[in-house]
Design goal:
Blueprint (H helix, E strand, L loop, with lengths): L2 E7 L3 H20 L2 E6 L3 E8 L2 E8 L2 E8 L1 H4 L2 H17 L3 H22 L9
Helix pairs in contact: 1-4
Length: about 130
Amino acid sequence: MPDIHIEREHALGLPRARQLAFRWAEAAEAKFAMECAYEEGMTSDLVNFSRPGVNGELRITADRFELHARLGFLLGAFKARIEREIVHNLDELLAQDNPLEAFDHALAEASAKKAAKVAARPAPRSRKA
């Protein structure tokens, strides 16, 4: 199985990094149908995530995010694209002055796009008996 391993240092401290990671888990559940389990610890937290085709963990410390994901056969073909997207989003988020606010904005934007897509679908035709 192809693996993705990404590490990023940050200067958020554990409480703010924890908030960001918790929101990430919520977004992963809503946007990608992931099942996430958040374990809070004294010096680090761990988010275990899974769905068909991918599973992994995100470790959160006072100065680092470390993501390790294992992709199944079908998603393995898209490893480079998936990894690029994760890296881009994480780097963009950590570059913000207020990453929590930026994360909320990005999540709201993604939700609006999804709602627009659903609204643009043609209405199902009713069948005559």
